[in-house]
Amino acid sequence: MDALVIGPPDGLAGAVADRMRRHGATVLQAIPADADDRERAVWLLEEAGHPPLVVVVETAPYRVLDTMLGLVPGELLLVAELRTAAVGAKPAGRAWLPQEADGLAVVPLGRAGRRWHTLDGRAEPLGGERAAAHVLSAAGAGAASSR
Description:
- The protein is an alpha/beta fold.
- It has a single domain, classed as Rossmann fold.
- Helix content is about 30%, strand content about 25%.
- It has helices at about 10-20, 40-45, 65-70, 130-140, 140-145, and strands at about 5, 25-30, 55-60, 75-85, 105-110, 115.
- It has a six-stranded mixed beta sheet with strand order 2-1-3-4-5-6.
- α1 (about 10-20) links the parallel β1 and β2.
- α1 (about 10-20) crosses α4.
- The longest helix has 11 residues, at about 10-20.
- The radius of gyration is 14 Å and the shape is globular.
- Residues about 140-145 have low confidence and may be disordered.
C-alpha cells in the first residue's frame, strides 16, 4: 500500500482516498474505530503493509492522531477539520491544533456542513474533491498520490 487514510467514510477522508487512487496510489481506507486503541492501530498498520503515508482526518481532540503517533513508520498527515458557522468564517473560540513535528504535517481546514474552506481569509467553498486536492498539495503529499 502507498497510503492509509483514516476518517469518516462519507467526508473528506473518502475524497482524499479517491483522489489518491485516481492518481495511481494503492490506498486502504479505514474508519476511526479501526484505530481506536493502540492494539487496533498496530493491526491496521500491519494490514496496510506499513505504508509510507498515513492520513488522519478528524476534529479535536484528535484521538486517532494520539493513537497513531509513534506507530507510523513514514509520514503522518493530520487534516484538522475545524468547525465554522459558515464558509469563510473563523473557527469559534480558540481552535487547538497540534504542532507540526518531524514526521507530522498538519493541514487545517474549516468545515461548514458538507463544505470545506481554507483558513487564510478566502471565503471560497471547497467541495470534497477540491478540498482533497488542497490537502494533498498543502502537505506536499502530492508526490505520494501519484506513485
